[in-house]
Design goal:
single chain, 483 residues, alpha/beta, 3 domains, eight-stranded mixed beta sheet, four-stranded antiparallel beta sheet, 10 helices, elongated
Length: 483
């Protein structure tokens, strides 16, 4: 019980023994807004010989990821890329086993001729270069064997290799030695591992067959079910296929809804063509998924996605654009593969985030947008164009929810309750306005309505108009000539 303006949590009204009794009330102690720390979850494939269970693990360095999930695994490489892009990322990894029907991609390097001089043979795998010195009259098979040893020493590579030479027959009296390169990770992503060879040895001819025939990526249902009850703000996947994106979209809608309230976004990337990326974005059409496009990069798609997501995690201000932020560690594509200005404009109108090469040859974000382009009626809709919009809405919901939970944990619902709740909501909005996360709070104050429900006697409903602060993306000016 209590008086008109004072209520007690621990001091009962029935006390009769004389005394001076005090209790502490901390409900009004916190007057600031909730923080907006970002936690990142990588869902990626582990190697087949890894024993890591299907449960998220918090990691702080790529060496630990290599030990747990296998060196060169998608989980390991994405951990390394995320930490390189943002060293202070709050990172957890959910290792997924390879599909039982998965096939690993393969490629080959063949070497013909005989060394008539000295030189160097170099094999480039993704962004890594492996080189061996060649002496005069070294046999091609011996050179490939040395290159294979050098490859084995690089445990972080996403591939393994083996040298094979066909048997001598009448048809092939001098069989060509071949270095067969196999992806460590089964599935389609192995096809994206770029291979290139250069040789300065006179008499040698090196030929590369690019990686291919990788098939069947893991299913995501079990992995997402394993983290349904967890609370992560950013998801990152290496796969950007239509089925995976739709499964991810359904998961995000479920955990981010008004009942679960573990709101999250997902950040993915593809090095494929703009046309392919636009088709993928259109098939997903989600305000919670951002798909970046960087055609022609030697960096694998899983590393581009991890770097992109980590950069998003580095920005705790939900309304601040990610324009020009660098994806550290991601290889810039050659000039011929880079998106032109016209292509970037098309991407931004198709739900695709274009990545470009900035000064110094670094990869940068042009404008982080969502894949949402049309409403359920199929009409073009720009309401959720920028990722800052959904991130701002999520933060406003979090800030208001935490304030209500702090102020009214055991509140009665009387005629005096709605004005008190409305006052707290307006206070949160004003503080958000000071941080330039929302604006025009005074103009929209009359629209903040708190009223009792007509069907549930224990429920209070509230409408909160939220004018989010938009990013300054375009500046246009007219220069008048005066003589």
């Amino acid at each position: 019980m209590a008086s008109t303006n004072i209520s007690f949590e621990k001091i009962p009204a029935s006390i009769r023994k004389p005394g001076k009794y005090f209790e502490y009330n901390t409900r009004n102690a916190v007057r600031t807004l909730a923080t907006n720390g970002q936690s990142m979850l990588v869902i990626a494939q582990r190697l087949e010989d890894s024993t890591a269970p299907l449960e998220p693990v918090r990691v702080y360095d790529d060496a630990t990821a290599g030990e747990l999930f296998g060196y060169g695994s998608q989980a390991h490489l994405m951990t390394r890329a995320a930490i390189k892009a943002y060293p202070y990322v709050d990172l957890s990894v959910l290792p997924v086993p390879p599909h039982s029907a998965g096939l690993a991609a393969t490629g080959t390097l063949t070497l013909t001729g005989e060394a008539t001089g000295v030189g160097v043979l170099t094999l480039t795998v993704g962004t890594a270069q492996i080189s061996v010195a060649v002496a005069y009259k070294d046999a091609a098979a011996d050179t490939l064997a040395e290159l294979n040893k050098a490859l084995e020493a690089e445990q972080d590579l996403p591939v393994t290799a083996a040298v094979t030479t066909a048997e001598v027959t009448e048809a092939t009296p001098s069989p060509v030695p071949t270095l067969t390169i196999t992806a460590k990770n089964k599935g389609t992503l192995g096809n994206a591992v770029s291979l290139a060879a250069s040789c300065t040895v006179p008499g040698y001819t090196a030929a590369v067959v690019k990686m291919g025939n990788g098939q069947q990526d893991p299913e995501l249902e079990d992995a997402l079910a394993a983290v349904f009850g967890a609370d992560y703000t950013l998801y990152c996947l290496p796969w950007a296929g239509e089925s995976q994106l739709r499964t991810l979209r359904d998961h995000l809608e479920a955990v981010s809804g008004p009942l679960e309230q573990r709101r999250a976004t997902a950040w993915l990337a593809t090095p494929s063509t703009l046309a392919t990326a636009a088709t993928l974005a259109g098939s997903v059409n989600s305000e919670r998924i951002s798909l970046a496009c960087l055609p022609g990069s030697a960096s694998p798609p899983e590393e581009i996605a991890a770097a992109y997501c980590a950069v998003a995690a580095s920005e705790e201000d939900p309304a601040r654009p990610l324009n020009t932020l660098e994806l550290t560690g991601i290889a810039a594509p050659p000039d011929t593969a880079r998106l032109s200005r016209t292509e970037q404009e098309v991407a931004l109108k198709s739900g695709v985030t274009p990545l470009e090469v900035g000064p110094g040859g670094v990869v940068q974000i042009v404008r982080a947008i969502s894949t949402y382009t049309k409403n359920p009626a199929g009409v073009a809709d720009v309401s959720m164009l920028d990722m800052t919009t959904i991130r701002t809405m999520d933060y406003v919901a979090k800030a208001v929810r935490e304030r209500i939970e702090l102020r009214f944990p055991r509140e009665k619902l009387s005629t005096r309750t709605p004005p008190k709740v409305r006052s707290e909501v307006l206070d949160v909005l004003r503080q958000l306005e000071e941080l330039e996360i929302v604006e025009e709070v005074a103009a929209n104050a009359e629209g903040v309505i708190c009223e009792r429900d007509l069907q549930d006697a224990n429920r209070l409903n509230c409408r909160i108009p939220t004018d989010v602060v938009n990013g300054l993306h375009v500046f246009a000016g007219v220069i008048d000539l005066l003589l």
